[in-house]
Design a protein that fits this description.
This protein has about 575 residues and is an all-alpha fold. The chain is built from 23 helices and 4 strands. The strands form 2 sheets. A two-stranded antiparallel ribbon has the order 1-2. Strands 3-4 form a two-stranded antiparallel sheet. Helix 4 runs parallel beside helix 17 and helix 6 crosses helix 19.
Length: about 575
Amino acid sequence: MRRTRGKGPALPAAGREGDDERRRLSTFHLTGLALGGIIGSGWVAGAYSAYGTVGSDAWLTWGIGGLVMLLVASVMVELGTAVPKTGGLIFLPLQSSGALVATVAAGGIWLVYAINLSSEAFAMTRALTVKSLRLVVAGPGPDPRHTDTELLRYGWLVTLLFMIVITAVNLIDPKVFFAVNSWLTVLKVGILVLFVVVFWTMATGSQSAHACFQKTPDLKGQPYEEIMKAVVSSSAIYAYVGFQGPLDFAGNVRRRGIGEAARLRIAVYGAFAGSALLYIALQFVYNHDHLQWSPNEASSPYVTLAGPTWLGWLLQANALISPMAAGLVFTHALTREVAALSRAHLTHRGLQSARMSSLGRRHDVYWLVLGVNLCVAIVALIAVRGSLLSLIAVSSVLTLVVYAIPSVVLAALLPRLRDKGYGERRAAVYGVLARLSFVLLTIVAYMVGWDQLWQGMAALAAGCALLFGLPCLARVRPAFGRMYDAKVTVTQLRHWRTLPAAQAALWLTAHLVALTLFSLLGKTSRPALDPWTAGCLLAVTSWCAFEGMVRVSRRHMAQAPPILPAPGAVEPAAGPRARAHAR
């Protein structure tokens, strides 16, 4: 067995994976992951953006956005509890639909998590913005109702420093990391709750306290259509996507007591309920005293509202803590997803290794993945020229694409889950929910608009080109092949007539092409299709693509039976002697 200098024997790949799955996370840690991902930078300027679109009806954007993402979360939670696996967003599509679909999902996930590192570090830089320290500049975005934020010269350096800090924190022992993240989440949520309570306590009884419920006179035409646009164009969807943190570690959940499935549901659904109430309350606060605010003045409108008081300083600090904690969650989760991709030999095989940290002890720290992730995040920030709206647009589109794939995976696996005692009624309900989730995500992606959609699709194409192309380059260039080791999967497309895995990838590609074409047709001032017609046609095409992918995925599993981890039985609580023995 290979040894490393002074560190003891290195574990084989199977041993490292087993060690990664043995660690058990509590409900507190799981809730910290979910809330830590949701309550990031979305609260800082989300209310300002939503109010600029639909006025005081903006609170509806947070409610509707939460319901949309809750439907998606219900499908992903069901998949994560039925087939619990750390790194499941890549591992499970590989088992159900083959290597090509899994690689497309991996390209999107990798970019979403890496771009999140850029956007959260960007938000931290904006939190430092004061008149005497110009790090960012505010300007008009593609939509005149939304203000874009761009980095200035020193802002680039500060953002890079924050990205390095977030990456470095992920090098600590995971047990310490989960504790730190959980208490950071308690701190940032507690500050926001305190602000809302103080504000409403001061406003209670005053006539102006009812202003937050008044309609603004500038809403004309079709307000509900404007509200739906605001759900997509403001930070509502972007803010809620962080719920997946516990699902990235579904194989690490503690089984004692209430069991792993109950803990996952409590963490995700509890985080959804709490964050939705908090976002709506913050929107009401902004509606009550909306300001002509820009990022050049303060880190958030709430800091301006609180003024130079102890509460204002707490909010100023929270504008720095919240995005940092969210960046920590996404960055840490990415290491597990990339490790799953590496174990499948779909990217460089060395990335699956939990390398030794500099602390002199054996830690489950994927420092090489963290380094690659940092490089990808820097490239993404340069590609969008330091524009925050562009980062959010690319991340949102990629998320909508990636989060649709678990719907296909769950529907394809339902017959096999029924063989393991999955009830007929439950399978039928989640079969319907999976279809609704897939179609709804497609329509929401269409509503994003061409100006933002093409950026996300271009980023996905670039990510897939690298993951598919680098193995081919390694094959034709032996020198490069000695550094980069991965399977050449793109050649499966040559056998698309007989290979179900290739057919699943073609169905997914056709779906994404149709979405892009519909968006392109609707981008002009006189679109070829009106929005309702385009939405109905897109719903039909996405449903057809969904059924096609499910059918060929089941054929793929008939040829290559999947390896599906079974949910663990609820274990009895351990006594003091058993806990001491476990330690």
